[in-house]
Each structure stands twice: as structure tokens, then as C-alpha cells.
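Per reviewer request, we include the raw input and output of the structure prediction for the construct analysed in the revised manuscript.
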Amino acid sequence: MRDLIARLFNLERHEAGAVIAGFGMFFLLFAGLFMLRPVRETMGVAGGVDNLAWMFTATFVGMLVAMPVFGWVAARVARRRILYWVFGYVAATLLLFAAGMATSPQDPWMARGFYVWYSVFNLLAISVAWSVLVDVFAIGQAKRLFALMAAGASLGGLCGPLLADRLVTPMGHAGLLALSALCLVASALAASRVQRWRDRHPLPADAEAPRQQPLGGNPFAGALDVLRSPYLMGIAVFVLLLATLNTFLYLRQAELVAEMFPDATRQTQVFARIDIVVQALSLLAQLFVTGRLAQRLGVRVLLAGVPLVMAAGFLWLALAPTFAVFVVVMVARRAGEYAFIRPGREMLYTVVPAEQKYKAKNFNDTVVYRGGDAVSAWVKAGIDAVAQQPMIAMLIGAGIALAWTINGAWLSRRLDGRARDDAG
């Protein structure tokens, strides 16, 4: 089986076990989280579409609170065990929310609380899972293997919404939360197999900074590293522009779905079916396209190609603001992010020190991302209030996408330079 996988997907034979474990880690994580994504969107509508900008702000505040706590844990726990602490907390909290929804299913404050909590910790859990892979694999391996393991995320992201669509009626939202908690525990077990594989095949860097030791430092080291490093700051700008475009589309999606599908169960099913299409496309690209593109054309095509497509997509939405066009652009944006942008973005961290792979990376993935969400939500609300035409926000989005394209090309050049320096 391993020999067949190695030949089919351009692996070295000893890498097959690690890729299977990484695939399983992402599959279980994303199945659990994306099972809840339609629930989160339904809770956002239940909390009031007009309140979404406030919930984005609350999410950012929650992230500001969570990140020093994460930094404190990362400084004191062996870095190979950071994921277990994060996933354990997320699973336990899911069970508490499940109990709350079972007893108070119509409580709008329960809906708002879950929306904010999920928006904080789903990003943190995904970021930590990627930190493990960035820590375990070198840049040459990352170009070949990251997309294959990320295909587990797409398959999990495909199965999660399918489960939500089929199980939300018999199990309710509380049942979906309990099942998600079980998936996260199983994902942590798969991550432990990746760590054990690297123990058997150590990198030279492992001797200098053993993964059994804590990272040390202070809880705010990630933010300070980003502010001091032009390279990490460039990644922060990339994440900020990504979050801004995502938020513009996300808010428009909430408005359209609330207008067209007033029933909460129907809304969950619509969100789930959009997720199914996105994950199916992402899976095909990750298995058969992304790794080969990165190897032959470099990371630039991953980081700059999708932003350029999004510039065209936002212009299309400005000229034809229909629900059908919106769905096409949203699917292209999300599938492109999962299949190309996310693996390419994670490769950027393979050339930084171990502490930055966890702390600076997680600061960019969470605080910067949710900060971009919060600011851009209010910016879009202001644009809509003044212009009262969705077209204006879409035209501004096209300009932001062009800036994102330039930033992605610059980062890919910096990555190539750092990789050459490390090899030399």
C-alpha cells in the first residue's frame, strides 16, 4: 500500500506513513470543524445579520485574549505537545456548548457566544495543526507533501458539511457539537503519529532545538517577532488582505442567504452544500495539481495566482451582482484558498526558527486574520451605508485583490532567497 501511494503521489518510500498520518490528522480536524461551520453560519443569522460586524469585533477581542494564553502554554509545554493541549481544550468546550444548546436551543446569546467562540478557536486549531507540519518537514518536502496532506482537510471539509446536512435534523445542533469533539480527539492521535515518524527520521534542526523541549520566551513573543521582521510582516499583510476579501464576500453571503432562505435548517443545508462543492474542488486540486505546480513553477504561482483570479471575480460581481455569480466567485475563492493559498502560505514558515513557527505564525493566523475581519466588516458596513450599492464594495475588493497579488509575488521571492541561504 505504501509503495503504491509513494509512486502515485511522488513520495519517497519512507514518507508515505507520515503523509497518511498528516492526511488523517487534517481529515478528522476538518470533518469536526466543518461539520460545525454551517451551524456557525446559522448562529450568525440567528444572532442577527445586522449584528455581524459587532460579532466580528467580539471575535477579534476574543482572539486578543486567547493569544497570550496560547503564548503562555507554548512557552511552557514541550512543543510537540502544544497541539494536544489546544485540541483538548477545544473538545471540552464543544461539549459544554452542546449541553447549553440542548437546554436552551433558541437563546440568541447562546448563538452569539458560539459564533464568537468557534470563530476564535477554529482558526487556532487549524493553525496549530499546520505548525506541527511546518515544524516536522523541511522546505523541499513541504513543496511535495503539504498539498497531499492538505487534501485530508478538503476531504474532511467535504464530509463535515455532508454530515451536517444529514444529521442536523435527527441529532440537532447539540449532537453535531458532541460528534465534532470526538473528531478532534481522534485528530490529535493522528498528529502523534506524525511526530513519531519525525523521531525516526530526524532533521538536523532537531538536534539544535529538540521538539521535546518547551519553546520558552514570553506570551507576546509572536507579535514582537512579526513587528521586527519584514518577512513576517509581509506574511501579516498577506493574511490581512486575504481576510479583508473573505469578509467582504462573507457579509454579502449572509445578506443573500438571509433574504432567500428564512428557515434556520434550510440555511444550514445551503451553507453545507456550498461547502461540499468547495471541498470537492479543493480535494482534486490538492491531490493532482498543487504539489506539481509548487515543484515545477515555485510557490509564486500558489500565492499570486488566486489573488489575480479574485480581482477578476470581484469585477464580475460588480457588473453582475446576482446570487448565482456570487456562488461561483465564493466557490472559486474558497477552493483556491484551500488548494493553493493555504499550502503556499504554510511553506513560507518552513524557513523560520522553531519559536516563530508556532508563536509568530499563530499570531498572523489568528490575531491578524481576525483583526482584518473586524476592521473590514466595519469598512464594508460604512461603504454600504454611504454608497447603498453592493457594486462599490466589490470594486474596492478588486483593487485589494491586485495588491494581494503583488504581495504574494514578493513573499515568494523572499522565500526562495531564504531557502537558498539555508541550503548554502
